[in-house]
Fold these 3 entries.
Entry 1:
Amino acid sequence: MSGFASWIGGALGWTLGGPIGAAIGFAIGTAVDKATSKGLLLEPPKRGSRQRRKRTDPVYEKRRRRISTTQKKAQTKSGDFEVSLLVLSAIVMKADGEVTTSEKNYVRDYFVKMYGKERANHAFQLFNGILKKEDLSTRQICQQIQLYMDHSSRLQLLHYLFGVTKADGHVSEEEVELIETIAGYLYINDRDYQSIKAMFYNPVDSAYKILEIDKSVTNDEVKKAYRKMAKKYHPDKVQHLGEEHVKGANEKFRQVQKAYEQLQKERRF
């Protein structure tokens, strides 16, 4: 459990509070209970211990929360993005009432690819605990993420969630509708939502949707749209999350390039 505890310590920042903190706390408790049942942890101190619980002043706590919500949005760190992925993945996977092995494997494989096997194992241990929590509030969790996470990181979250829905080869309407709801809660506009969705579902005129333009635009407008989207989805936008996420963001960037090349070929310019 020491490795797990160390990983948790390094992973949590602004996620310690709010609904995400509650979900993570539940998951940690589940992991601790499991370890205790196997004799991996010592018994907790008895009630006669000299340790005292700190009293919480409700007035102070209310004021602290009010101040925190008005503070400038902090730049998201890798660990905060990581646990946000886990919580939102759990919500989406449970949308259709069934969590498949393929979906769970997608999460594990993604974390192995991004963070390495050891860190992925710790993340998946936490993820299993989150899946067991029944009362996850999608709206409250997304509000916390939107409050602290920059726009580029939220777009990366959305891209990942679409990958989760396709992991088992079956995409339910409930899952897609939930992701659209999540996008709204995260303040991601419809054009950005449709752009990322088109990277996975290849609708008619998907190249136009990815570049967020209509078929009626001129060639010059296609070029302008490409430059705009290439800038929006450039991997450097999530560089603050760590090198592992820069690699993950390359997929969105490649899709934009592919869409532009397709239109170049179709329009012959």
Entry 2:
Amino acid sequence: MKKVLAFDLDGTLAPSKSSLPPQVGKLLDQLLDYFDICVISGGKFGQFETQLLKGLKSDATKLSKLHLMPTCGTQYYKFNGSNWDQIYAENFTDDEKSKIIAALNEGIDMLGYRESKVYGEIIEDRGSQITFSALGQDIVTELGDEGIRLKEEWDPDSVKKNSIRDYVAKLIPEFEVRVGGGTSIDITKPGIDKAYGMQKLIDMLSITKEDILFFGDRLAEGGNDYPVKEFGIDTLEVSGWEHTSHRLETVYDAIK
């Protein structure tokens, strides 16, 4: 039996930048009786608070078994009984941030992918990760379902994201540049991706790869969940939170 269930957030546990659906929150709460649960995503911790934690009605004992890894595992938070402690953060220096932001701006301008209408910042400093969001960080907050639709339609074949990634990666080869979500590019220190986060979790919990089952919606090669699969952890690909909910019901029914 697995000891840890690990999840991507956007597109896996919840719609992009949207609240945790109640049925998913209920299932996670039930499964915390049997497993440690890890959520790893490109979002910053504040996004975890509004998107995940507000919809998770678990007591302190259960929350102590929840492991939060924002910004693709470059940060790790653990519940201390009353608050969330940051255990580590692989933060950039100011000079590194400036170099990354300059490279992103050059890439999107040279390729012609700077949108005239955006919602919030398009380049966000998340401390340990710099993220480019083509339509702005706040599009779903401001437009709701319409924002989700616009994000899905912006680059359905990933041509734009891959072009930006390839261009920017050549400018800053000393950093990790990868496609994030449907409209985003994430940049971290080299060698840091979701597999890095999983290795940190393994070390902290004194477990093995075989003890983890990972759920993600971008497990194909090139997707931001793929490093977990390549790392050798058992994975389940899902097509959205509804699919995840169905999978979790199956897991829960098998063990309760």
Entry 3:
Amino acid sequence: MNSSWSDAWRLLRIPFSLFLMPIFWFALSAAPEVSAGRAVAVFLILHLLVYPASNGYNSYYDRDEGSIGGLKHPPKVTQTLYWLVLIFDVLAVALSALLSWLFAGMVLLYLLVSKAYSYEGIRLKKYPLLSTVVVVIFQGAFTFAMVQVGSGVPEDRILSTNNLLLALVSSLFLCGSYPLTQVYQHEEDSRRGDETLSLKLGLWGTFIFAGLSLLVAAGVLFYTYWRRDEPWHMLFFLLGTGPVLLVFSRWLYQVKQSLAAANYENTMRMNKVSSLCMSFSFFIILLWQLWRG
């Protein structure tokens, strides 16, 4: 594999796509009566094709010189990346169609929206509020529903009030975590003219906004678990995500001591801990559901 293809593969950032796992496990834990085979297929399509294609397309138009999610020193962008992204797009939609046409349509819509986020002719990324709304809806509630559709959850179950409340929770969690991923990119975003939400809020505003959003998300989550008569799920979530609160508090203290602590390394640590802990929590909830039958 020549350097052009090797660099293109790196810019797909497939390992970084695994940070979006919590939505998958959350969606399944909300409706565990699904086909295991279909669920595995959905996981592979999303995390090995859809998310990497979105990452690669974003890199193609951003042409970052500084650190990006999952790559501290990104390689130079070449035309090879563009064609590799298109290959991943086609594979994602084609394989999704084998599960259901509705799932394939949702995957296609997700891919198109992710391109509108970065494409220079539209570039939703330039608009702080609009881009945030788009990201939290499509990476949150829309993906939550997409996982359930692909995994074979009945339509009436997907559209039930409690399930829609959990879909809302997924967007609220994204609303809190998304601006935090932008705190170390203020300088580069300003240079490109991308007025991100974090840049608009400022450093401390971003942390306050994130904390409030995550608090509201947890509140709605516990309310919905109460409506569903699932008190054990609250306990599993609290125990599983305890480290997230500790890491977030420690990071906040470090930033208070020195603004330089709002850097790539700490952002990725926060991202990794929150992703793994939330995935673990929802995975345990899923196992509990399956064990109870």
